[in-house]
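Write out this protein's structure.
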Amino acid sequence: MKIALPALVAAFALTFTGCATLSENRSASAAREGMLAEIKAEAPGNYYVGRRYYKVDYKFWGYIRKPGQPWSEAKLVMLNENKHLAPDREGGTLGTDNGYEYKLFGSFSGDTVYEPSSNGFYPEFTLTGYELRNTNPAPIFNPLAPALDPARNVIITPY
């Protein structure tokens, strides 16, 4: 009887832990499905959609895609701010918009910029303006990945 009780408690705990994980997975899946439907409904136009991806040690800005394209086709970019400052820099609050989604105006310059901390080369996007779309958008990264932790020096590709 003494052995059966701890085993029963452990089984009970695992059952509820599994339900929470299943519930979280369903919630993330539902949010992702909603996001994909929103992407399909985006109006075409002369703009881009950007998702801020702030990392303390890296100087890239985030991911940018054309309207109607999935995040898996987005490009991780260096932002040229000669014509317009990035939203967080304009507000004097570097990185506070991590994970935010923007409607971006501007264009790709055709240049590639070296970012020494990540030892990577990224396309340059010249920003001319922006509109904040969402401060809490659906996730574009696997929820198990440490993608949005600014202190973690990992670069995760959207799915």
